Amino acid sequence: MLLRKSTSLDGSDIPSSEITPRADYQRFLQDRRSFLTGAAAAGAGVLGADRLASLLNPEESVHAAGKLQTVPSPLTTHGEQLTSYQDVTTFNNYYEFGVDKSAPAHNAGGLPTRPWSIHVSGLVQKEKTIDIDSILKMHALEDRTYRHRCVEGWSMVIPWVGYSLSEFINQCQPLSTAKYVQFLSYFDKKVDKWWSESNIDWPYSEGLRMDEAMNPLTLLTVGLYGDVLPNQNGAPVRIAVPWKYGFKSAKSIVAIRFVAKQPPTTWNDLAPNEYGFYSNVNPNVDHPRWSQKTERRIGLPFYAQRRDTLMFNGYGTFVASMYQGMDLRRNF
Amino acid sequence: MKKSTLVLLKILTWAACLIPAARLAYGAITNHLGADPTRTITFMTGLAALRLLVLSLAITPARQLFPRLSWLIKFRRLLGLFAFFYASLHLFAYVGLYSYFDPHTMVTDILKRRFITVGIAAWLLLVPLAVTSTTGWIRRLGGRRWNQLHKLVYISVCLGLLHYWWQVKTGVLSPLGITLVMAALFAARPLLDWRKRRQSAARAA
After folding, report:
1. Which residues of A touch B38 (CB under 8 A)?
2. Up-side HSE of residue A41: CA atoms within 13 Å toward CB?
3. Alpha-carbon B157 to chain mean position
4. Cys-Cys link to B52, which of A274, A294, B24, B83 (CB 3.0-4.6 A)?
């Protein structure tokens, strides 16, 4: 993705960090519109002013800016057929926006992705709030294709964009007493109006052990298919932990806490016998109500969907050493 | 009720009952069954079966509550058979689309996944009811015995609801609505029987 044809024409050479956030731009348009409308009150240019505003349609300007500048990564997964953009963005588990898989694509439009920041607290040298623009600038954005295995038994292959969470954590300067990292997702009853379709104690909380969070595979994710994350996929910033079941990869993160003890996590709290804290993909440990031996790959013809689930979702060479000596049946 | 009205209502009921199948067929042809068509097909046929079962069970309380609606009984068999039709499609979707007709996968599933175990049980209980739904069978069994046999539908619908709850993730409340409706229908029966006894007692006194 380093070289692109006529980048200067579609604007993709502009680093996303230099692009005016949508909210700011709309405020600017509104300000100007009211200014022009005020001026028009003296004359007769109301229509013209409105036309001018619509000529500078913010939708189009921002969409062209949606393309992210990315570099290749040695940690990307090869040899897998990508799940289509359509499927990745219309088949989502994002219960704050409805429990039906197609609901988030319809309902997540109101998620206010700009301005956005992550509040970093807990066992750190200094508590701080990091703005999304700083997050986008912190490190080169990499193309990282990962397998994504849902605990429900389906899977996808998704070309994410982001960089190792470890880069971000290093900026947070955690203390040596920090053993776990907790991630909290955005929650506002006025926006996430579908929250009551499940009896989850919001906001959504997830967590990783420190070494898992620092593993280079754990991706701080800001995009997919070279573009910014669609809201239903956890915009503007989420994590992707490819060797764990999908629910471990928290979406729309607003706070990161460094803690000494294993933090409470949403699904583990709700049904500890069904969803472990670790939730590593493991074909040998069944969910109490269904087998995890196989999975169905979304987007393939039905007769070709079923395939064997791989230990650690096929990422054992990167992560197995972290669990040496642990009984993965007990610590599922 | 005039015969022509009845025929018209039957045609309309048939059309309404075929809507889920028509939507699936249309979706399959136009490729609009979502990212996971297997799941869409299985889910929609299962939901249609449960809804029709619940609807068929609403007929008796409705008739008791509003005697003028006693003609509704003429539609119960139709609803019940359509419920069986969708339950069978649902089972067939599982056998074909999920387990690729592989007996080994199916046996493991039935033993291992308890939501499939109860689902199969619910369907098996519907089979004798569908078979004995004809007028000939009612006559052969006699009204009382036929009625007793068809009480199996209550067990079947309970297993069907359990199947739904066990299939969704813990904490997901999608099956709640239909469960509450079913609970209301269960509660309605003894209440209506009690009211009937009281009325006849009052008349006798």
Report:
1. 296, 302, 305
2. 5
3. 7
4. B83
